[in-house]
């Protein structure tokens, strides 16, 4: 989840405000990226004018939007100091990981502290890298603002001025436009702390590509330590999906500038994960460095998901997000919207805009169904959303599985009720017009608002399947578009017993029988044993490389009831020596039931095909 608290500000407006507003009415931060000490950077702050008749508390976030995990970014702050206007040290009390208290009467002229990065920290509770920080002297800096900069309680809405001194040849990739920039220094002005957290920056020697999509300027910036993946390849790879998303959203994007900030790593990251974090005007990626063709589709899929967050929560979000509390967060119950619908859109756009086939899309849906079945389906989705930081933390991953399926079921339901004319795309556009970046909805009112914009039946859908514990009506939903959720088919095959093979470690070629040996119906006995090394089957030499193919061909060519001779090497328990033994096995018929997810019945009705065309645009 990401938050938008204001529209993108033009550079000229920022410059005007910077000169018109007194400097002491804003936070003035400075960081010198050329002065890395012990893998740390020093942050200096000239604070705004603060009342001295009461205590002041300086904070770094406990959590930031979009992460759904408590990270306590203040843990990475060291050597926190403050001075008064005469340069004398001020006493500071550290209240907890994220807060520092100044007593009443403190005149704070300057604060300084050191920040260690999260990418290679030794601290526990590792931060997922896309929302973390990286400090590699003279190489790369990933600067998520919440990892370096804080705010005084009650004073988050003041302007923020950030000044970065940068190494020669470095470029800051960000959705922000600097109010001033020289070869050695960049200066940015932001309207409040929320926008600062929403605006990551990556400094390194640039590998960037700029393109135009739907009236927006899109920056692709890549840091690839081995030079395997370049920004041009990424831009060329995602260009069609971004244009498809532009068409999907009605032909124009709701932003005029966006940045893909991509950091590639070798080996393993500290969190053991890879992925991305969305922002209103950008997304940050932490991905393994590999050959471009091996990661291309993954980048497309992840970029499609993150880019769609320009819809929600940018233009559609609740009060919990609009007024996000960085240190005492209250979660919204609408993760089905913020993450689920976005994940659904990321796959749906590709099939609807002709970038992937219907069969490939069915495979995507099959994986979502299987993944959703691994979670607790008795917990109402709204309850899980509210409790995703606490009792239902382990269920959070279901937002990308069941959450996407909620989006699908809602889409098909709307198409059915509207005779194909109205779907979730239209609903999101209506919600964006109803609310927008500056007008949050009340968490408890959203379902009623959606019902008023669409159909009364939709309110019952939410009550039963999102607020309530009932499983999603997947079978009913897929039947509407001519698909069987589960199709069970009896299958006949031939067998001469359950042989579980492995490879002899000494010869690297001989097949060894392991595992339980079971009799099939019609088999009186099996002569082979666990530990036998198969030499021949039906007088043909068997090796590890030809075993599977040979057995398949044998069963296809022999009638049921045939006896097949085998030769095996068996170790004698008394002498501990292997001896060649002749054994026989009997081929019998074996029957099992094959279950296929999302099967296409042979004769869908005209109504089913018509609704499918409305749903998928084909």
Can you characterise this structure?
The structure is a single chain. The chain has 3 domains: 11-204, Sandwich (Immunoglobulin-like), CATH 2.60.40; 332-483 and 600-618; 491-594, Pdz3 Domain. The strands form 6 sheets. It has a 7-stranded mixed beta sheet. With 618 residues, the protein is α+β, with helices and mostly antiparallel strands. The protein is globular, with a radius of gyration of 30 Å. Helix 3 packs parallel to helix 4 (292-307), helix 4 crosses helix 6 and helix 9 crosses helix 13 (474-480).
Distance between the termini: 31 Å
Number of strands: 28
Unreliable stretches (pLDDT < 50, length at least 5) are 1-22
Structural class: alpha+beta
In the CATH hierarchy, the third-tier topology of the largest domain is known as Immunoglobulin-like
- Indicate the CATH class of the largest domain: Mainly Beta
User: How is the largest sheet built, in terms of strand order?
Assistant: 4-7-2-1-11-14-13
CATH architecture of the largest domain: Sandwich
Coarse morphology? globular
């Amino acid at each position: 989840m990401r938050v938008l608290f204001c529209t993108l500000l033009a550079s000229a407006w920022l410059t005007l405000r910077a000169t018109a507003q007194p400097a002491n009415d804003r936070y003035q931060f400075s960081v010198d990226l050329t002065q890395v000490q012990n893998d740390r950077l020093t942050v200096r702050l000239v604070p705004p004018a603060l009342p001295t008749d009461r205590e002041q508390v300086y904070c770094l976030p406990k959590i930031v939007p979009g992460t759904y995990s408590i990270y306590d970014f203040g843990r990475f702050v060291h050597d926190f100091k403050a001075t008064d206007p005469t340069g004398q040290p001020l006493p500071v009390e550290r209240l907890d990981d994220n807060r520092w208290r100044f007593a009443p009467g403190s005149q704070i002229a300057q604060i300084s502290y050191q920040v260690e990065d999260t990418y290679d920290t030794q601290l526990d509770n590792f931060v997922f890298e896309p929302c973390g920080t990286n400090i590699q002297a003279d190489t790369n800096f990933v600067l998520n603002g919440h990892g370096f900069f804080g705010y005084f309680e009650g004073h988050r809405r003041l302007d923020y001025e950030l000044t970065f001194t940068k190494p020669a040849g470095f470029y800051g990739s960000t959705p922000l436009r600097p109010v001033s920039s020289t070869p050695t220094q960049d200066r940015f002005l932001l309207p409040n702390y929320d926008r600062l957290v929403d605006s990551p920056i990556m400094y390194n020697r640039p590998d960037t590509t700029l393109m135009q999509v739907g009236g927006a300027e899109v920056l692709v910036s890549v840091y690839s330590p081995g030079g395997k993946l370049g920004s041009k390849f990424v831009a060329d790879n995602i260009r069609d999906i971004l244009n498809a998303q532009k068409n999907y959203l009605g032909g124009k994007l709701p932003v005029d500038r966006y940045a893909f900030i991509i950091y590639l790593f070798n080996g393993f990251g500290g969190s053991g994960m890879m992925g991305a974090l969305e922002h209103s005007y950008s997304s940050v990626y932490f991905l393994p460095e590999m050959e471009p063709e091996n990661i291309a589709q993954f980048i497309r899929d992840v970029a499609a998901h993150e880019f769609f967050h320009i819809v929600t929560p940018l233009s559609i979000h609740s009060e919990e997000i609009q007024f996000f509390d960085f240190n005492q967060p209250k979660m919204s119950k609408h993760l089905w919207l913020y993450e689920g619908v976005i994940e659904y859109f990321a796959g749906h756009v590709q099939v609807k805009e002709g970038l992937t086939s219907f069969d490939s899309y069915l495979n995507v849906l099959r994986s979502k169904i299987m993944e959703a079945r691994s979670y607790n389906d008795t917990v109402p989705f709204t309850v899980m959303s509210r409790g995703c930081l606490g009792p239902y933390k382990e269920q959070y991953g279901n937002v990308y599985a069941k959450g996407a399926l909620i989006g699908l079921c809602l889409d098909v339901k709307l198409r059915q009720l509207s005779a194909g004319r109205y779907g979730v795309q239209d609903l999101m556009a209506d919600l964006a017009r109803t609310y927008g970046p500056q007008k949050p909805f009340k968490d408890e009112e959203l379902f009623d608002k959606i019902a008023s914009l669409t159909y009364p039946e939709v309110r019952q859908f939410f009550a039963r399947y999102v607020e309530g514990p009932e499983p999603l009506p997947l079978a009913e939903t897929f039947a509407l578009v001519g698909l069987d959720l589960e199709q069970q088919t009896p299958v006949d095959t031939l067998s001469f017993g359950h042989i579980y093979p492995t490879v002899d470690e000494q010869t690297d070629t001989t097949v060894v029988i392991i595992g339980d040996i079971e009799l099939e119906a019609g088999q009186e006995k099996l002569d082979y044993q666990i530990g036998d090394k198969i030499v021949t089957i039906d007088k043909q030499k068997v090796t590890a490389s030809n075993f599977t193919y040979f057995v398949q061909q044998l069963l296809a060519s022999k009638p049921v009831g045939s006896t097949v001779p085998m030769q095996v090497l068996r170790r004698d328990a008394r002498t501990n020596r292997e001896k060649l033994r002749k054994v026989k096995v009997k081929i019998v018929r074996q029957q099992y039931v094959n279950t296929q997810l999302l099967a296409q019945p042979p004769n869908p009705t005209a109504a089913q095909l018509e609704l499918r065309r409305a749903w998928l645009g084909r």
